[in-house]
Amino acid sequence: MPSIAALSRTLHGGTSVYRSRLDSLKVLHAVAQSSPPWWTPSCSSFLRQAESLSTSTSAASARRHPVIVVEGLDGTGKTLITRTLAEKLSGMAVSTPPPQFAEVRETFRSQEEVVARAFYSAANYIAAEGILAASQSAVVVVDRWWCSTCAMALANAHNYDSLPPSGDAVYRWPEDLPAPDAGFLLCVDEAVRVARIRKRAPEDFEEQRLSSQSEMRRVAMEAYRRTNMLTEVAAPTYRVAVNSILRLLPESGVVHCAAAFTQAELDSIEPF
To answer: What's the pTM value of the predicted model, to 2 decimals?
Structure first.
């Protein structure tokens, strides 16, 4: 798809990090119009939903409860920590991309990088609509969001030395996407992370690359850090990580009365 690749470069300068919903839609429209054999009715349905969104940054002002995002590489315990944190805060756990797109996600992620990242970018906006709606009634804890889209796009396209410098616009949260109130980056020993992935399920292609390429992991983690939106949290166990996040939340303006795990509860489980 040379014309689509050229179009995408004009939108993101070769980083595959789309800066707006409109930019990602331009690429997805171009793909749809080219009628590739892999394009399915589910792809068309996803595109229509992304087009029909009304979510904007102004909608964030209507938010009643905080939105917290938990980020990190695969195998760092994001899902368990997200769910446990939501339980502690009497809130709701949400994952991105939304689970109803599991099938179409597999279709898009097997395409060239600029197309796959356009899907993930558009999915962030669809997720935002549900996240903002949920935040009207409870705290929302999100299992990865835009920062993961940014970090993985850069990790697939750059080595450490070629990363855009800190402060570059590529690391800024998109202006048309409502931002979370607090964000955390989970850090786990690499041997433990890989063991968790392999125990959980067979690795997909991107996870295999992360496991085998230390440079890719290094780039992804540095990209996460350069977003300047995430506080790093060591996660030797999920309970330790949850306690750390509960302690750090007030520093981001998220006041709560959730009870941390006791020392006995911390001691009662094995490390990841």
So the answer is: 0.90
